[in-house]
């Protein structure tokens, strides 16, 4: 098995230490690849390559149209290799190949979206108080960007960072999650094929506390863009203060899904399932916190449980599978503990609440889709992100109470509201303190719409025009065409 290498200054290289890591298929624990395991020293080399490339200025001075052309080419190559990429993503994460194919379409779409808008902002002339002068505002790249991604949507989260950084003329060093690096390695091959110049995009593989820590603290890095857990985000924020790096943090969520009695019942049940059991709940915006009007609560839970018990678990490569395994044994143990703690807090396990017993699932990191009822907002199981196939159900009796519950969280990533009453829906979304709110919908994202969190779910936005601006500095230029002495001194 060839070792997956790092990409530094246009060269595919092993880790300086020659350390490697086994990449495991979470469905059966088979080793699917061996990857280089870089550390601080590899990260330093990559940062130097990115710094030198940025300071040479060739990429930032390449026209935005040309950078857009190269990024379009990356999208073309992702579409060409979609099936291979989808299969690698499923081997690495356990998600179904159908889900991975959807991810690959989204990813190509993100590269295309940013390629399209790359050359649409040539700056702005603004009014100047100085006679005979020109005052203009232009956007410039931030510089060297450190980019750190998680394991749940490995290539999708990478694309949200790579595409805007490249089209705006930055250079970068990316560190994917050490347990799911494979599709990111492949896309760096495609970026090389598309003609991204040497040193502009660098890839270091390895652990967060070595490679990630170096990216966060190294003073040659101007911006750090991180997607991952809240505790890691806080550590990165502290580390990044060393040279006041620009910071973009996409952190966790505990996302309320509020269902009023007047909602379309069957659609709300169906979407509540999708909101939490897709990708086994390992989604930052999963609707893990169901908040249902009391008058329909029992009927809603019954309908939910009936359908949850029919969810088919299995290999992501089996077309019949609806839900794959969790990412790792370590993560499975966290989900087990999360539910056990909930039981101690007094929740009722309406279904699930344990590992499956089928012999064919024993080698994988599976957990049964789980519905917990009798949940209240003061419980840890309601407040903490479990990041597994577990939904907690709370009740409310008034619109005011529903909104109070929905906002009772340190997180503010996303939420949904289900009702046929348009005025009520609008009143609710105006109160919901979240970066994305869906009305009669859940978990939809696309390249044009900004994504990010209120409160402790993060800082900054990815996607949309806002996602581009994270990678830009704003410069005001005043050009006096008729300079005069002031004779003040
Ligand atoms: N808001 C979003 O858009 C979004 C999207 C996907 C995932 N997430 C969040 O990600 C979390 C799950 O991902 P995870 O378990 O991989 O998160 P994590 O925080 O454990 O790891 C994320 C990345 O950070 C690296 N890292 C770990 N310690 C580090 C350190 N000290 N310095 C620098 N880097 C370090 C890891 O190696 C990995 O690459 C969940 O909380 C989920 O909600 C958020
Ligand atoms: C941002 N999203 C929804 C694609 C993945 C979150 O984990």
Automatic annotation (TrEMBL):
PROSITE patterns: ALDEHYDE_DEHYDR_CYS (PS00070), ALDEHYDE_DEHYDR_GLU (PS00687). Keywords: NAD, Oxidoreductase. Its EC number is 1.2.1.8. Pathway: Amine and polyamine biosynthesis; betaine biosynthesis via choline pathway; betaine from betaine aldehyde: step 1/1. It holds the Pfam family Aldedh. Residues 15-477 form the Aldehyde dehydrogenase domain. One of its GO terms (molecular function) is betaine-aldehyde dehydrogenase (NAD+) activity. Coiled coil: none annotated. The active site is at residue 250. Transmembrane segments: none annotated. CDD domains: ALDH_BADH-GbsA. The keyword Cytoplasm does not apply. It is an enzyme of class 1 (oxidoreductase). One of its GO terms (biological process) is glycine betaine biosynthetic process from choline. Gene3D superfamilies: Aldehyde Dehydrogenase, Chain A, domain 1, Aldehyde Dehydrogenase, Chain A, domain 2. InterPro entries: Ald_DH/histidinol_DH (IPR016161), Ald_DH_C (IPR016163), Ald_DH_CS_CYS (IPR016160), Ald_DH_CS_GLU (IPR029510), Ald_DH_N (IPR016162), Aldehyde_DH_dom (IPR015590), BADH (IPR011264). Belongs to the aldehyde dehydrogenase family. This is Betaine-aldehyde dehydrogenase. It comes from Oceanobacillus limi. The lineage of its organism: Bacteria, Bacillati, Bacillota, Bacilli, Bacillales.
């Amino acid at each position: 098995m060839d070792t997956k290498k790092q990409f530094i200054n246009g060269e595919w290289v092993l880790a300086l230490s020659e350390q490697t890591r086994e990449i495991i298929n979470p469905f059966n624990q088979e080793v699917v690849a061996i990857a280089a395991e870089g550390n601080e020293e590899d990260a330093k080399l990559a940062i130097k390559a990115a710094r030198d490339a940025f300071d040479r200025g060739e990429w930032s001075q390449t026209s935005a149209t040309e950078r857009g052309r190269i990024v379009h080419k990356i999208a073309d190559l992702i579409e060409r290799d979609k099936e291979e990429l989808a299969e690698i993503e499923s081997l690495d994460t356990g998600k179904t190949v159908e889900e991975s194919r959807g991810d690959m379409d989204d990813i190509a779409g993100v590269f295309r979206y940013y390629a399209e808008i790359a050359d649409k902002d040539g700056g702005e002339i603004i009014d100047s108080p100085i006679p005979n002068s020109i005052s203009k505002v232009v956007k410039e790249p931030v510089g060297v960007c450190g980019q750190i991604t998680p394991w749940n949507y490995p290539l999708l989260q990478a694309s949200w960072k790579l595409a805007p950084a490249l089209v705006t003329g930055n250079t970068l060093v990316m560190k994917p999650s050490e347990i799911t690096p494979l599709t990111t390695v492949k896309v760096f091959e495609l970026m090389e094929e598309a003609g991204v110049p040497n040193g502009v995009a660098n890839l270091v593989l390895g652990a967060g506390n070595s490679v990630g820590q170096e990216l966060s603290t190294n003073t040659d890095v101007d911006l750090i863009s991180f997607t991952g857990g809240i505790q890691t985000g806080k550590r990165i924020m502290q580390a990044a203060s060393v040279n006041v790096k620009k910071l973009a943090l996409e952190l966790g969520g505990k996302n309320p899904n509020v269902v009023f009695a007047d909602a379309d019942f069957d659609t709300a049940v169906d979407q509540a399932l999708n909101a939490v059991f897709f990708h086994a709940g390992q989604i930052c915006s999963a609707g893990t916190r169901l908040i249902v009007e009391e008058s329909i609560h029992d009927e809603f839970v019954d309908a939910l449980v009936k359908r949850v018990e029919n969810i088919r678990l299995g290999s992501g490569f089996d077309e019949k599978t609806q839900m794959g395994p969790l990412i790792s044994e370590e993560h499975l143990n966290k989900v087990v503990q999360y539910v056990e703690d909930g039981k101690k807090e007094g929740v009722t396990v309406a279904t699930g609440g344990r590992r499956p017993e089928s012999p064919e699932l024993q080698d994988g990191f599976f957990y049964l889709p789980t519905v917990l009822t009798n949940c209240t907002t003061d419980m840890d199981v309601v407040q903490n992100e479990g990041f597994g196939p577990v939904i907690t159900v709370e009740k409310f009796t008034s619109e005011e109470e529903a909104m109070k519950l929905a906002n009772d969280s340190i997180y503010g990533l996303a939420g949904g509201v289900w009702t046929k009453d348009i005025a009520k829906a609008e009143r609710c979304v105006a109160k919901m303190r979240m970066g994305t709110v869906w009305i009669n919908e859940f978990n939809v994202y696309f390249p044009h719409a900004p994504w990010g969190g209120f409160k402790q779910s993060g800082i900054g936005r990815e996607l949309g025009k806002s996602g581009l601006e994270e990678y830009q500095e704003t410069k005001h230029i005043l050009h006096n065409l008729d300079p005069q002495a002031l004779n003040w001194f």
